[in-house]
């Protein structure tokens, strides 16, 4: 795939690959009371979860995604789980999601969990951590998830480097303040 | 989950003992998780950077403000253990210095986390709307912009706020094992406060009275 290509939904509009992935209107391939699975022709699988997400719903999603991914070449797909419409997530559902992440981690190239509610970012972080899957990460918005789905670094490495970089800047500032005082 | 070697388990025991002595509480399985994920050197670096950020932040803005900012950074990551523990610590600092219990009740924090980021921002703005909270609110607002609106750091404390956000995002990778289910009343005052039992008792009594007054009870 080239770095820039025409937007498949709006011919003539040139966009980077991440924009193509995330701005296309995906087609719905499976639907359940608590989630909708959709996909674009560019290798993005998107699962939107909603309402009270319980263990039974999670098990159904688990089976559906496993079936769906059994048919695709490993590494050819990225997965986006949109939790913005989720209101509750049971402990049982959380456990199933961790098992699902463990399984899909070996099949999809990258996973992004997106939610604008901190409580579910915590649950998604727990899922990514317990899977464990270094190619899965949580985000507050779909826009923030774009870069992640296109990148390749391990989550723990990126977080460690970011913390090191910012603390390093503090040290630089402290040294500067000391030298100029 | 990989098993730790005998040497690593000894290292974890030493870390836990050191934390009990220096901070006054036991982090339970968190340090074991740190060693499992980052190794022993990585864990030492993690702890060293944490001490560095906490100390620089506290030096710049004081204990109460520093613990509040850390708690809110952790809130945005979804770690209940850290938000409860650091806000509790902030409240104890406030109570010790002024006799006031602080605007964020530990019991309200989980509800705050169920809100959207915009809703919780508005709730925080309301909680920190008093004239005495003006500087703290300015820092929380700035940290919110840095965290959610990709603001480029350029003001005085922006680097410090970014370091706080970045460090706690890294730390919460491990604390989330307790942070996914933590509840108020079961998390110690985090940081290096080591509150005396008498202070905790007085604070609990004052907090209960404040809750009763708020509900008209």
Can you tell me about this structure?
The complex is a heterodimer of chains A (181) and B (217). Chain A is of the alpha/beta class. Chain A folds into two domains: 4-150, SpoIIaa-like domains (Rossmann fold); 153-181. Chain A has six helices and eight strands, in the order E-E-H-E-E-E-H-E-H-E-H-E-H-H. Chain A has helices at residues 17-23, 55-70, 91-104, 118-130, 142-150, 155-180; strands spanning 4-7, 10-16, 27-32, 35-39, 44-53, 78-89, 110-114, 136-139. Chain A has a six-stranded mixed beta sheet with strand order 3-4-5-6-7-8, sandwiched between helices. Chain A has a two-stranded antiparallel sheet with strand order 1-2. In chain A, helix 3 links the parallel strand 6 and strand 7 (110-114). In chain A, helix 1 packs across helix 5 (142-150) and helix 2 (55-70) runs parallel beside helix 3 (91-104). Chain A is globular, with a radius of gyration of 19 Å. Chain A starts with a strand and ends with a helix. By secondary structure, chain B is mainly alpha-helical. Chain B has one domain (6-194). Chain B has nine helices and no strands. In chain B, helix 2 packs across helix 3. The longest helix of chain B is centred in the first third of the chain and has 32 residues, at 30-61. Classes of the chains: A alpha/beta (181), B mainly alpha (217). Chains A and B meet through helix 4 and helix 6 of A and helix 2, helix 3, helix 5, helix 6 and helix 8 of B.
């Amino acid at each position: 795939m080239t770095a820039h290509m025409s937007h498949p939904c709006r011919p003539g509009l040139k966009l980077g690959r991440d924009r193509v992935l995330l701005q296309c209107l995906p087609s719905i391939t499976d639907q359940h009371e608590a989630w909708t699975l959709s996909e674009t022709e560019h290798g993005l699988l998107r699962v939107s979860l909603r309402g009270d997400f319980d263990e039974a719903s999670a098990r159904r999603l688990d089976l559906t995604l496993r079936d769906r991914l059994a048919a695709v070449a490993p590494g050819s797909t990225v997965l986006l789980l949109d939790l913005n419409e989720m209101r509750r997530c049971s402990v049982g559902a959380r456990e199933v999601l961790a098992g699902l992440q463990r399984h899909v981690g070996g099949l999809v190239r990258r996973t992004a969990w997106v939610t604008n509610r901190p409580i579910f970012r915590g649950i998604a972080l727990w899922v990514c951590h317990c899977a464990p899957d270094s190619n899965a990460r949580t985000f507050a918005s779909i826009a923030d998830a774009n870069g992640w789905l296109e990148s390749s670094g391990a989550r723990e490495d990126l977080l460690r480097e970011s913390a090191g970089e910012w603390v390093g800047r503090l040290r630089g500032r402290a040294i500067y303040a000391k030298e100029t005082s | 989950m990989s098993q730790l070697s005998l040497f690593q388990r000894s290292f974890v025991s030493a870390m836990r003992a050191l934390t009990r002595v220096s901070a006054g509480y036991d982090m339970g399985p968190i340090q074991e998780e740190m060693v499992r994920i980052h190794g022993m050197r990585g864990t030492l670096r993690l702890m060293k950077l944490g001490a560095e950020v906490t100390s620089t932040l506290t030096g710049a803005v004081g204990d109460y403000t520093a613990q509040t900012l850390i708690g809110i950074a952790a809130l945005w990551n979804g770690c209940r253990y850290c938000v409860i523990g650091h806000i509790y610590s902030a409240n104890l600092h406030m109570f010790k210095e002024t006799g006031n219990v602080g605007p964020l009740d530990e019991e309200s924090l989980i509800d705050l986390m169920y809100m959207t980021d915009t809703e919780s921002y508005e709730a925080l703005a309301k909680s920190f709307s008093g004239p005495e909270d003006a500087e703290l609110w300015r820092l929380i607002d700035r940290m919110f912009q840095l965290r959610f609106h990709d603001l480029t750091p350029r003001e005085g404390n922006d680097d410090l706020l970014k370091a706080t956000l970045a460090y706690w995002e890294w730390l919460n990778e491990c604390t989330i094992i307790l942070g996914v289910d933590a509840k108020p009343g079961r998390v110690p005052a985090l940081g290096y406060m080591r509150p005396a039992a008498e202070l905790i008792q007085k604070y609990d009594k004052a907090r209960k009275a404040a809750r009763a007054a708020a509900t008209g009870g």
